[in-house]
Design a protein that fits this description.
Strand order of the largest sheet: 1-2
Radius of gyration: 14 Å
Largest sheet: 2 strands, antiparallel
Strand content: 5-15%
Number of helices: 4
Number of strands: 2
Distance between the termini: 12 Å
Shape: globular
Length: 120
């Protein structure tokens, strides 16, 4: 399951990263250039683990990224301010409610991919 999650989310991350340069408010998110570059790099790494990496590598990737993305969602909700729970991690990375929701969903999907993959 981890390799499948890596393949699917790898493509999604690449698409969101590229589309974010054209439509920076896609899905209500705050897709700034650095955010888009991070999505493109994350997508490339996910695709590597999905297609060329080992199953155990894909599983670890899913678990780590699941924790990272859930952490982003929780921290954004905890530290965000205003009606959109805006959290400015850096000058170049801003996250609002839509970002927190999307990061939470991605975190759960990545974690599921890692947790429900049987060891070989």
């Amino acid at each position: 399951m981890a390799k499948t999650v890596c393949k699917i989310l790898g493509v999604v991350f690449l698409l969101i990263g590229v589309c974010g340069f054209v439509a920076p408010t896609l899905l209500g998110a705050h897709l700034m250039p650095l955010h888009n570059i991070i999505h493109i790099l994350s997508g490339a790494v996910a695709l590597y683990f999905g297609f060329a990496g080992t199953l155990s590598g894909a599983k670890v990737f899913c678990l780590v990224f699941g924790v990272v993305y859930l952490g982003l969602a929780v921290m954004g909700l905890a530290f965000g301010t205003g009606p959109d729970r805006m959290w400015m991690l850096t000058q170049a990375l801003h996250f609002g409610n839509a970002d927190h929701f999307i990061h939470g969903i991605l975190g759960l999907v990545f974690l599921a991919g890692g947790l429900f993959t049987k060891n070989v």
